[in-house]
Write a sequence for this structure.
């Protein structure tokens, strides 16, 4: 952004050629079309396996809206994705979700130094989301009350432009269908018997679908957590 | 306050005249105020703030020293309040009242070093909640210092004192009686500094705590400016000018108040604080976002009705009862808190990355929209409750360190991802529909089969474990807490944490 405060949508050329985020996004998308630009490029938010194997490109393409079902383990999946972002020195913002358990977030791999929370955006939810999309690599949000289609489209466009991934918990009320949808189909806890033991890990059957998944759906069965804060693949 | 203002020093016949006469200094401190590290200094200063404010109400310019002490020039106030004793008593009672803690020491002497020693610095001074007042009459400082041991010179002088002691020079009077030129030749600049202190001469200068008011900068706009980019330019040049002046004074800006007026008479006032120090663009951006967010909020704009706030105010206004858009007429930036510039050098890996800067700009943006307290970072707390070890603190506020205490009885991993605050009502039933209770021995009286969450239908349990009792603060009269926790898994895969307290079941958290 230049000093006048008007968002730079035109490329700013200075000593080194610095491309605006819009152009950068175009370059990456073009490269993708040329076929198989692998994960590790700047166009994809890399997710370590085994959860990363759920995504066809080895991670979440930057600028996508990801919807995660809120029931039965969805929040833990979302937190694990956030943990991957902080591990590669990115920043994660949480908008809403005031009941988020921070101990759980840390156990799932989130670096709490790189986590910023806005628990009560209130009536300014959309403005706050716009500001967060501008600066954060991932925004984890629960949708504010009755968002209009217009606002949803505008936020999606902004995310695409800035290359920020937005993870929406419980997208059932969202007017636009998200680019990727992560659904937890089944969830089985281990560790509790009739009266003794304690919760150890759970086996989750996760499905990924949506427009960006190129019309297919992917399923994985994963442990979360097998032992504290570690994903294990069910092989 | 220099000695020239006084027009001479009173001397009694037979006393040795001092060539310099340092001003009278009053030092007020608590001996056992906890010493904090550099990184925690800001919270220490905040805790110290009410005391300083109370003393400042009595005396105009006060210097805050680290580790719980203030110093002030006492000659004028002493005359005003009727003597050193009266001043000392007044200041100490006000400070004790503001801090809520007794036991402060007040010392008045010529020069800061002696005053600091007088304020409880001697070995035989009792620590703890007694406190006291010690006033060294004017001109008697050197005589008072005489018999005191040299090790009271304190930090930084240890090697010199060690050497002097081994040479047989143990007290201030012995040091002061040595010729100055020889001291300089033999012991160097540190030696001559100690020598001057021993003679009752002190070069310490008191400086005012707050920057003088004329350091605030303002810019008036006539005609009133409604376009954000013009306001932005004005703000940027204001910030540049202000920071240049502060830089030449050798300080950096830590907290600032930004004020804006419109031609309708509205005023926006907000205090900003930076984790490290403001640079010109950071300051200008905060001013811009504060004004931008304030103006658009006044107009009742939401993102649903118009363009998003970040594009600036240059866009179609929806004027309300006026025929025109309100314009900004005045922007004023006042430094609130400054810190000596330490000339930190950022190494290659220490400099904030582009992503860090983007994130912090975004945070400042949201703070401008919602207010600085609405953006939270993770801080650390103490406790064995569900999330007591973590706290949400305002972004930019000083953070506490992570607890190293074991806290037995904490919930084991994995931790629940959703913590219900306030906790919800629940009921635990056996297969006959009878309620399940926890008896005095911490065991369930029936085998649970169903759980009911407020108002819903009963859900069958697939697994359960517990109860795990917790008893907290059993020794205290009002703060006791007895609780028992249980984990349950309902059909469908959801796991929950229940607790039993005050003869009722509660849903504390969900493993979402």
């Amino acid at each position: 952004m230049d000093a006048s405060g008007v968002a730079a949508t035109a490329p700013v050329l200075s000593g080194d050629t610095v491309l605006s985020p819009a152009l950068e996004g175009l370059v990456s998308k073009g490269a993708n079309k040329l076929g198989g630009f692998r994960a590790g490029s700047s166009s994809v938010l890399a997710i370590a396996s085994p959860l990363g194997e759920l995504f066809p490109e080895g991670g979440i393409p930057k600028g996508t809206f990801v919807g995660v079902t809120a029931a039965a383990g969805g929040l833990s999946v979302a937190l694990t994705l956030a943990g991957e972002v902080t591990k590669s020195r990115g920043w994660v913002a949480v908008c809403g979700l005031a009941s988020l358990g921070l101990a759980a977030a840390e156990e799932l791999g989130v670096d709490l130094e790189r986590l910023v929370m806005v628990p009560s955006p209130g009536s300014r939810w959309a403005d706050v989301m716009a500001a967060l999309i501008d600066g954060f690599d991932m925004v984890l949000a629960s949708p504010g009350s009755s968002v209009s289609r217009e606002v949803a489209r505008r936020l999606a466009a902004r995310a695409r432009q800035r290359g920020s991934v937005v993870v929406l918990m419980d997208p059932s009320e969202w007017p636009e269908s998200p680019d990727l949808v992560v659904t937890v189909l089944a969830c089985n806890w281990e560790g509790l018997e009739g009266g003794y033991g304690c919760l150890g890990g759970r086996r989750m059957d996760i499905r990924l679908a949506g427009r960006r998944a190129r019309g297919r759906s992917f399923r994985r069965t994963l442990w979360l957590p097998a032992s504290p804060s570690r994903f294990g693949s069910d092989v | 306050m220099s000695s020239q203002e006084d027009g001479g020093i009173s001397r009694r016949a037979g006393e040795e005249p001092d060539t310099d006469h340092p001003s009278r200094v009053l030092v007020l401190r608590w001996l056992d105020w906890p010493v904090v590290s550099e990184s925690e200094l800001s919270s220490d200063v905040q805790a110290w703030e009410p005391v300083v404010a109370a003393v400042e109400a009595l005396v105009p310019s006060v210097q805050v020293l680290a580790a719980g002490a203030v110093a002030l020039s006492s000659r004028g106030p002493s005359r005003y309040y009727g003597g050193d004793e009266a001043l000392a008593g007044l200041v100490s009672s006000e400070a004790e009242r503001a801090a809520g803690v007794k036991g402060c020491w007040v010392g008045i002497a010529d020069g800061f070093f002696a005053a600091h020693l007088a304020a409880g610095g001697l070995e035989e001074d009792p620590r703890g909640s007694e406190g006291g007042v010690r006033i060294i009459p004017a001109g008697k400082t050197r005589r008072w210092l005489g018999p005191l041991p040299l090790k009271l010179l304190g930090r930084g002088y240890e090697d010199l004192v060690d050497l002097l002691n081994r040479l047989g020079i143990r007290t201030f009077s012995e040091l002061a009686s040595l010729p100055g030129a020889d001291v300089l030749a033999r012991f160097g600049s540190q030696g001559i500094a100690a020598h001057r202190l021993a003679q009752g001469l002190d070069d310490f200068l008191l400086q005012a705590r707050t920057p003088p008011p004329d350091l605030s900068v303002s810019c008036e706009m006539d005609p009133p400016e409604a376009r954000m980019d013009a306001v932005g330019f004005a703000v940027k040049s204001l910030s540049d000018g202000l920071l240049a002046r502060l830089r030449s004074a050798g300080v950096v800006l830590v907290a600032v108040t930004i004020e804006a007026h419109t031609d309708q008479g509205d005023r926006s006032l907000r205090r900003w604080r930076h984790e490290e120090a403001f640079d010109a663009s950071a300051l200008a951006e905060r001013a811009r976002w504060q004004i931008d967010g304030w103006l658009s909020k006044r107009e009742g704009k939401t993102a649903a009705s118009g363009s998003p706030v970040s594009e600036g105010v240059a866009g179609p206004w929806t004027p309300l009862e006026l025929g025109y858009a309100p314009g900004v007429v005045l922007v004023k930036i006042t430094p609130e808190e400054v810190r000596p510039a330490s000339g930190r050098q950022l190494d290659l890996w220490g400099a904030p990355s582009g992503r860090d800067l983007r994130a912090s700009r975004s945070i400042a943006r949201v703070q401008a929209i919602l207010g600085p307290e609405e953006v939270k970072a993770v801080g650390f707390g103490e406790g064995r409750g569900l999330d007591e070890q973590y706290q949400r603190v305002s972004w930019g506020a000083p953070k506490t360190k992570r607890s190293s205490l074991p806290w037995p009885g904490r919930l084991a991993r994995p931790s629940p991802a959703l913590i219900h605050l306030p906790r919800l009502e629940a009921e635990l039933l056996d297969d006959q529909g009878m309620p399940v209770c926890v008896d005095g021995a911490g065991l369930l009286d029936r085998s649970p089969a169903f759980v009911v969450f407020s108002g819903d239908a009963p859900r069958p349990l697939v697994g359960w474990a517990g109860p795990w009792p917790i008893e907290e603060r059993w020794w205290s009269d009002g703060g006791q807490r007895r609780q028992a926790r249980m984990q349950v898994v309902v059909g469908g895969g959801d796991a929950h944490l229940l607790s039993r307290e005050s003869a009722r079941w509660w849903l504390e958290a969900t493993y979402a």
Summary: Chain B touches chain A through 68 residues (CB under 8 Å). Residues 266 and 402 of chain B are 43 Å apart (CA to CA). The first helix of chain B runs from residue 41 to 58.
